[in-house]
Q: What sequence folds into this?
């Protein structure tokens, strides 16, 4: 009886290593691929970025999933973590690179997908660099392969295009309710990163730039996540802390997702209070160090005994 209880706990936490992807992962992957395809067709010059973000999130729900994190729409030198704030007036540009990164979860089982669009055809090398790097990396994703060696593969492909991989952004393994579960898929050759194992799920996401090959945090913050800090606070701040814990659990959420019917609540102030008390953490918008364009391509794969299964194809 005790062994059965332990097995059930493992199943609930998503740590059972299976030989094939669970149905929830398969369904989430199909939803992610469908939504990405439909959203891509809506990305045209002068479209509001907030329209794209909300469209992606709405379609995920319509097709039977839930957003695993806010839809990111990052333009040119913005590499990651840009999702529209309330009232965002920024538009899709007529030229440059537009990256769409979205995640789908079903019962805590998560997939992650991203694509880059070259708006006027002048930066197609960036798109091909990360696309080719991703697919060569996926081919290498077999049990026992060093993650650092996969990083070497990504690096060599991107450099062949005359670009630099972004070394301080990585892919990541995914577990139930954990978008970033501990292992990293580097975009450059790296030592001591561990090996690919059967039953694991990974988001592989090469980033390429013509800049320095690193990103830095900007002052903009639109995405947050709860921490494990359970210390009670006071008043409205405590009510918000409990609300966020109940509604979003361990997964990231957007400031624009938080609604309030009271005009007396200063949401920005309350979020600052939660950050101050380490009840939540922030995901600053990340930009390339020298302000140069960035591309990104991403799929989520399941590792079977025979090799990778692309969930988001």
A:
């Amino acid at each position: 009886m005790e062994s059965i209880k332990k097995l059930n706990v493992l199943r609930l936490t998503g740590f059972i290593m299976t030989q094939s992807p669970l149905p929830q992962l398969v369904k989430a992957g199909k939803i992610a691929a469908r939504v990405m395809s439909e959203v891509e067709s809506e990305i045209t010059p002068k479209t509001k970025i907030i329209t794209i973000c909300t469209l992606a999130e709405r379609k995920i729900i319509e097709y039977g999933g839930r957003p695993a994190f806010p839809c990111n729409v990052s333009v040119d030198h913005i590499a990651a973590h840009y999702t529209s704030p309330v009232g965002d007036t920024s538009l899709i540009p007529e030229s440059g690179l537009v990256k769409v990164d979205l995640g789908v979860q079903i019962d805590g089982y998560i997939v992650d997908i991203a694509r880059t669009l070259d708006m006027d055809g002048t930066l197609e090398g960036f798109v091909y660099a990360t696309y080719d790097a991703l697919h060569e990396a996926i081919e290498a994703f077999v049990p026992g392969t060093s993650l650092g060696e996969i990083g070497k593969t990504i690096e060599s492909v991107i450099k062949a295009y005359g670009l630099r991989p972004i070394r301080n952004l990585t892919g990541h393994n995914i577990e139930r309710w954990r978008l970033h579960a501990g292992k990293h898929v580097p975009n450059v050759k790296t030592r001591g990163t561990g090996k690919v194992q059967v039953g694991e799920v990974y988001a592989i996401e090469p980033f390429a730039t013509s800049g320095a090959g690193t990103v830095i945090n900007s002052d903009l913050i639109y995405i947050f996540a709860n921490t494990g800090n359970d210390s009670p606070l006071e008043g409205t701040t405590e009510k918000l802390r409990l609300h966020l814990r109940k509604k979003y659990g361990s997964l990231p959420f957007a400031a624009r997702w938080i609604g309030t019917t009271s005009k007396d609540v200063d949401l920005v102030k309350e979020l600052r209070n939660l950050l101050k008390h380490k009840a939540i953490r922030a995901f600053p918008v990340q930009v390339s160090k020298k302000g140069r364009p960035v591309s990104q391509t991403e799929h989520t794969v399941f590792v079977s005994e025979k090799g990778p299964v692309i969930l988001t194809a």
Q: What stands out?
A: The radius of gyration is 19 Å. The longest strand covers residues 215-226.
